């Protein structure tokens, strides 16, 4: 069974000048993979007629499906719709369903409707209109030379609704796809070269349709097995068998058997033990708490945090001793230990993470250079500490510290 | 003066299956714009020989410069280097400087050196080696048919070092570029259709080389003017003149006169007033604090936060009355007001933000649907409250709440 190939075209000058990070493509690729479609290229072009047409032509030649986002807003810089209309040889006509939705949307918000809003109900008469429940610009489905092209708004929330409710179901109806499966093992504490060396015989014996990829990720290493095969059940069984072989070679360093964020991996452990958690964060400034609470349902195990950026907050809220700060400094084993003990007390949780470090670019010294971090994790009368030294810039040092702290607590929970 | 055109090719299966969001391209585009280079396309392809070669060929035809990241790791799935070597007709030879760096790096970390690490010092003999101070894989500069191709590692920290120290300076030496300038006005409280209507005469009179773009962004609207012109000084003067005309039409809704994150805009206001700040966060779970502390130097005005996810933390740490929670609920004007007052007291700051809301997908009710948020901002004896209702998914509701809270405090500081 042949792979069904997809190209994703994102349109917008903001993507080419770096004003916006393209998160749409990654989300779309995941959804498409789950449905068995193979994304072979992603292209970003500006709001420029010739650039859009060139991308449509080139990607239409190489893929079965071309998904397009962006450039559908009500202002003059958005030109995707007229360009698509010309490219597919249509003319703009009013779509009654879209028109009614727009009128209703503005009415319910108590806003007047401008001509440019009404014009969003104009669609090329050569497309199938896909209803966008979340905004004014509808999705548009075109077909040409047996290829499918779908245009969606660039607003992530609107694009996601269209993908889930319209685009993916319709593509699944149209195409028979092979099984396209990934299985990721997450490991910690061993560099990719050494892991590769350890599993090189395993890698050599993999059947050619199973591919192994190595992805270092914030101090962890992701090992991804990917297969494409006609039958989903036998493909999954074969992939699982190979995965378990690989896992067996790396038992000591396994963190998780699926590609999940560390916050989700930790959440599973907390739920399994029935433990509540909190954080005392200095250098990460609330980022660990933010990552934990990004997960729906986290209120079941997360109670709260004290972000003690200033020493006075460490003392007044967490009860860190002035003498400790004076003698050892804010970035020290003694201080994180007292931060952890204080957080356990004021937050009333079963376990905590506490971090204090120097994220840079300033604040480092010969003794405690930028990247020095002390982490404490544990519960009452049972606190473990660990020192890390990261070598990156501020943003990456913060991310590394978050993953490291959650990983330390994960290990503590497994003791 | 002609535009110097750039294509960016990112290589890696993880980009095509959505395992990784490509943040490299946006960062590179910003750097290139500052230096006067025009990014016209971004392409992501997998770790696959034919796909890489096709991208090199196509982008080499349309751009002066092709920048390539990814696929340079020490494992078998990374194939960029041999493909480049073949494409440019070279053979792999050891680069002595890279070899010495690798040996030193492993020695200093107390790790053995494997053959696959040593092999990272192999480079095509047809490239100029660019020293990567931050990792084992060097940058490689190729020239073919008067086009320039530069390959860099995909690890963001390493790519950034190479761009700043080697790639951009060398490109600037090679090319004379026109001025490429952006100037962004950030507004709040008026939809893009209405803003567009308000400034349509302004938009109509813009000279053809100045482009206006509208970018809605988390409840704000960014209006970006872009110009490309031969002389930097006169281009900047002309752009400034048009920018001030536009600004003059939108005085009431201006948030900032540069494209900065809301956390940075707020930081400037705080510093100007000499005010310290803290947060009391329920539904945002520390995300506001995380965004504030992402800024280097934020310890000058940010003292800390209480993330009071559980009601007991609201009571025990912030001093919210049990009766208030019982009578009005956690998501209420009364509760955020007490959270703000409590945070001012325990954190000892001049001003605070407090938020409590329902981010979804669960927890909503008829009276308080998902997206309901109460925000309190202010200082001692002077707390303002506001209710918001966002209509999105959990992640977007959290982001919207953060921007809204910081925007409310910004307005309070301007009173």
TrEMBL record, chains A, B:
Domain named MoaB/Mog: residues: 7-174
Pfam families: CinA (PF02464), CinA_KH (PF18146), MoCF_biosynth (PF00994)
SUPFAM superfamilies per UniProt: CinA-like (SSF142433), Molybdenum cofactor biosynthesis proteins (SSF53218)
Top-level lineage group: Bacteria
Signal sequence bounds: none
Alphabetized SMART domains for the sequence: MoCF_biosynth
PANTHER family: NICOTINAMIDE-NUCLEOTIDE AMIDOHYDROLASE PNCC, NMN AMIDOHYDROLASE-LIKE PROTEIN YFAY
HAMAP family: CinA_B (MF_00226_B)
Entry similarity comment: Belongs to the CinA family.
Name assigned to this protein: CinA-like protein
Organism: Chitinophaga cymbidii
């Amino acid at each position: 069974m042949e792979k069904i190939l997809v190209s994703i075209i994102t349109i917008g000058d903001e993507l080419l000048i770096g004003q916006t990070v393209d998160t749409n493509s990654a989300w779309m690729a995941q959804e498409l993979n789950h449905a068995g479609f193979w994304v072979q290229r992603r292209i970003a072009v500006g709001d420029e007629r010739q650039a859009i047409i060139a991308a449509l032509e080139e990607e239409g030649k190489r893929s079965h499906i071309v998904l397009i986002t962006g450039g559908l807003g009500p202002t003059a810089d958005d030109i995707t719709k007229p360009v698509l209309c010309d490219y597919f040889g249509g003319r703009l006509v009013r779509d009654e369903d879209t028109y009614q939705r727009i009128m209703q949307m503005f009415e319910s918000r108590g806003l007047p409707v401008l001509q440019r809003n009404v014009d969003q109900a104009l669609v090329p008469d050569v497309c199938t209109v896909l209803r966008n429940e979340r905004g004014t610009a509808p999705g548009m489905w075109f077909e040409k030379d047996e290829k499918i092209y779908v245009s969606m708004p660039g607003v992530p929330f609107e694009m996601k609704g269209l993908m889930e409710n319209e685009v993916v179901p319709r593509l699944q109806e149209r195409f028979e796809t092979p099984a396209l499966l990934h299985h990721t093992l997450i490991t910690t504490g061993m560099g990719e070269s050494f892991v590769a060396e350890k599993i090189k015989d395993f890698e050599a014996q993999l059947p050619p349709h199973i591919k192994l990829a190595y992805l270092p990720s914030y101090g962890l290493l992701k090992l991804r097995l990917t297969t494409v095969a006609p039958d989903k059940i036998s493909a999954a069984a074969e992939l699982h068998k190979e995965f378990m072989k690989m896992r067996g070679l790396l038992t000591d360093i396994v963190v998780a058997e699926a590609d999940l964020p560390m916050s989700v991996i930790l959440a599973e452990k907390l739920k399994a033990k029935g433990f509540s958690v909190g954080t005392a964060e200095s250098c990460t400034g609330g980022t660990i708490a933010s990552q934990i609470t990004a997960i729906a349902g986290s209120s079941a195990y997360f109670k709260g945090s004290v972000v003690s950026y200033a020493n006075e907050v460490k003392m007044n809220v967490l009860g860190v001793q002035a003498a400790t700060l004076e003698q050892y400094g804010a970035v020290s084993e003694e201080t994180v230990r007292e931060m952890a003990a204080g957080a356990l007390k004021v937050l009333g949780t079963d376990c905590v993470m506490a971090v204090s470090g120097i994220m840079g670019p300033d604040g480092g010294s010969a003794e405690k250079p930028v990247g020095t971090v002390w982490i404490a994790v544990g519960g009452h009368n049972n606190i473990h500490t660990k020192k890390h030294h990261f070598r990156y810039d501020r943003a990456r040092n913060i991310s590394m510290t978050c993953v490291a702290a959650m990983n330390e607590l994960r290990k503590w929970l497994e003791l």
